[in-house]
Amino acid sequence: MRRINLVTDGIAPHVIGGMQRHSKNLLEVLLRLGVEVHLIHPRLGEVEEGAIRHSIESESTKLQITLVDWPRRGFLPGGYVLENWMYSRKCCQVINGDPKFREAPVIAKGFTGLNIVKKHRVWINLHGYEMFQRQFSLRGWLASLWLRLPVRFLHAHCEGYFSYGTGITRICKESNLDRNNHIEIPGGVDVSWLSSIGIRKLKGKDIRKFVFVGRNERRKALLEIKAAWELLPETSSRLLLIGPHDPNQWDETENVDLLGEIKDARELMSVLDECDVLICPSYSEGMPNVIMEGMARGLAVIATDVGAVSELVNQENGVLLEHVSVEGLVQALNFFNIMSASSLKSMQKNSLEKIQSFTWSSLGAQYQRFLTQIFA
Question: Where do the domains of the chain lie, and which CATH numbers do they carry?
Answer without folding.
Answer: 3-188+360-374 (3.40.50.2000), 191-358 (3.40.50.2000)
